[in-house]
């Protein structure tokens, strides 16, 4: 299949599964049903369209994919669910939107669905899903979405480049600072996604969690002036001092490109971009890279950047919609997706230890370690304002040398009343 389009590979890989029924019973075949699925557009959506077409061929259930630009996705989902149009039967929802949807009553509780073998198919096994993923999509004591896809930022390093400088892969903050300083002295440095925006606040969240720090105190009040928070931002400032020239203005994809073409010996980027790093036809460093959790102050931590399948409360086809979600999240279907795109990380424990998947995804062990201690970004209604303010402040800290404590005090004073 070398050189075939990703969608074609995925379609062939899934054909045997679809034609064998994929665990579906005859009761699931309903030619008069059309399911409409809402998700963001892009390469993953194109590959998923192949999956949905195979599902339709096997079951007789027509599936319409409404894939739109990410920037418009939430608005359109909210509009349809709030006005109860019944247009969507299955929606792709990230953890950042989930609690808002659940609190508004837009989603169908799935506790009974996941226990019904007539709906899940034989051997579906909810216990195989990681607890972290299930917890993210549980609200008011009820599971309201099926965790599907995860990514997390990791440290990526060129093993030969580090060995050439006598550097062991770093695990802790002091080790990372020392490694970055040596690389800087040798004329390179660490590539960091520290441009003002989402990436820099995401890195802060991971470093903060690994330093036993929190954005909020036990009462849910903003607590940005706690010592662990100030210490974390000060560490980011020190690390930025040994960054690859220009990378303090980069985002995830630019760091990944620098790693891919051998311009950076070490960098932090998101796991969803790793497939290209190990593609021998596209990467100068394929087979030469190592992956680890982002070095920590006290213990490993990761960021749960996730998507899940949820059935809107106004769907007119709840059973059929859940059957589709269960099929998409089955071990078999997820294994085939991972085969086509190794950067796709699912929440199933049986797949996280699968040797065939691990062979194609050398980052999987590090991603599993990070996700096992994964945290989410703040999910309160005012969280976007907080993250935007922190991104702006952090940019000033790492590029202009602004005082970390003063920056955090400013954000605290500005936004404390909102939490």
From TrEMBL:
CDD domains documented for this protein: PBP2_TMBP_like
Domain of life: Bacteria
Entry-linked Pfam families: SBP_bac_1
InterPro entries referenced in this protein's UniProt entry, alphabetically: Bact_solute-bd_prot1 (IPR050490), SBP (IPR006059)
Signal peptide: 1-20
Subcellular localization: Periplasm
Keywords for this protein: Periplasm, Signal
Protein family membership: Belongs to the bacterial solute-binding protein 1 family.
Protein name: ABC-type glycerol-3-phosphate transport system substrate-binding protein
Organism this protein belongs to: Labrys wisconsinensis
């Amino acid at each position: 299949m070398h050189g075939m389009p990703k969608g074609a590979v995925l379609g062939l890989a899934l054909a045997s599964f679809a034609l064998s029924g994929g665990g579906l019973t005859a009761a699931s075949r309903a030619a008069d049903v059309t399911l409409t699925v809402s998700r963001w557009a892009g390469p993953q959506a194109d590959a998923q369209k192949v999956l949905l077409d195979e599902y339709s061929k096997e079951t007789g259930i027509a599936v319409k994919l409404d894939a739109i630009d990410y920037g418009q996705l939430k608005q359109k989902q909210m509009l349809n669910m709030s006005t109860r149009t019944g247009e969507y039967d299955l929606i792709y929802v990230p953890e950042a939107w989930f609690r808002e949807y659940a609190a508004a009553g837009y989603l169908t509780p799935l506790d009974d669905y996941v226990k019904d073998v007539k709906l899940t198919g034989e051997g579906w096994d909810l216990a195989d899903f990681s607890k972290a993923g299930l917890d993210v999509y549980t609200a008011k004591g009820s599971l309201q979405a099926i965790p599907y896809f995860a990514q997390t930022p990791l440290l990526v390093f060129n093993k030969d480049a580090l060995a050439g400088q006598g550097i062991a892969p770093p695990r802790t903050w002091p080790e990372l600072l020392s490694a970055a300083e040596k690389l800087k002295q040798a004329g390179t440095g660490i590539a960091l996604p520290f441009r003002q925006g989402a990436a820099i606040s995401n890195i802060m969240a991971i470093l903060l969690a690994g330093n036993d720090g929190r954005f909020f105190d036990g009462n849910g009040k903003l607590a940005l002036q706690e010592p662990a928070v100030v210490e974390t931002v000060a560490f980011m400032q020190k690390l930025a001092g040994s960054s690859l020239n220009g990378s303090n203005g980069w985002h995830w994809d630019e760091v990944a490109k620098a790693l891919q073409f051998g311009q950076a010996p070490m960098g932090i980027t998101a796991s969803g971009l790793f497939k290209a790093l190990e593609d021998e036809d596209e990467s100068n460093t394929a087979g030469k890279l190592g992956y680890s959790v982002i070095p920590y102050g006290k213990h490993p931590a990761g960021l749960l950047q996730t998507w899940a399948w949820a059935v809107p409360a106004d769907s007119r086809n709840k059973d059929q919609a859940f059957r589709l979600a269960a099929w998409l999240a089955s071990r078999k279907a997820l294994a085939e997706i991972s085969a086509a795109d190794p950067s796709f990380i699912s929440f199933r424990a049986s797949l996280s230890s699968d040797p065939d998947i691990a062979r194609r995804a050398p980052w999987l062990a590090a991603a599993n370690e990070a996700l096992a201690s994964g945290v989410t970004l703040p999910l309160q209604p005012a969280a976007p304002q907080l993250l935007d303010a922190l991104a702006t402040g952090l940019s000033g800290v790492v590029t202009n040398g602004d005082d970390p404590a003063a920056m955090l005090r400013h954000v605290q004073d500005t936004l404390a009343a909102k939490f």
